[in-house]
Amino acid sequence: MGQPAERESGERATGGAADLQLPPGQRLQKGWPVTHYGPVPKFRPERWEFRVFGATADGGKHCWNHEEFTALPYTTVEADLHCVTKFSMVGAEWGGIPARTVVEIAPPAPDVTHVMVWAEYGFSSNLRLADFTSDRTLFATHKDGELLTAEHGFPLRLIVPHLYAWKGPKWVRGVEYMTADRRGFWEERGYHNLGDPWKEQRYSYQEEPGDGPEL
Known about the structure:
- The structure is a single chain.
- It contains 3 helices and 11 strands; from the N terminus they run βββαββαββαββββ.
- The protein is mostly beta strands.
- Strands 1, 4, 5, 8, 9 and 10 form a 6-stranded mixed beta sheet that branches.
- A hairpin with a 7-residue loop joins strand 2 and strand 3 (about 60-65).
- The protein is globular and about 40 Å long.
- The protein starts with about 25 loop residues before the first strand and ends in a 37-residue tail after the last strand.
- About 35% of the residues are buried.
- The model is unreliable at about 1-20 (pLDDT under 50).
């Protein structure tokens, strides 16, 4: 399993509150609240599988079991997490497998424009391919050098630092490549299709032409 390197003693240097720049409408959060819809799934490693499917370059489905997936190259990203409920957690170190690594191993067809990230209980979140392949988008297994807890998404959650946190589901199980956009779970229930916290894209009524799938 990919593992974080031994952490040096001492915490990362951070500025004072005056040095923080948060997206509009956000407040600084100390600690990490647990927020999710539905129950926490029970992890069964012998049944766990990560799939890449849909419009793949070779037309096939690509699968990894838990041991295989967590053996992929491990990296860390220092990034903030901005929740649409208006709290922001800053300066976390996330560890895991870059989304780009998955795309390189199981590439999409040339006409893919979006992905749907699928999680336990059929939960889903849609992303533009460019957001998914950002060099800071990560399938996280660790936070600050420690394994994620079940409540925070163990064994795998997606971190997309430049978007609101609902765009990065907990308990991820796969990725579907799509040649056209369609809304995910929260997007179908009134949340913005893009979810940029710096533009405060919280709700679907704020969408501009081109922000969402064509009807």
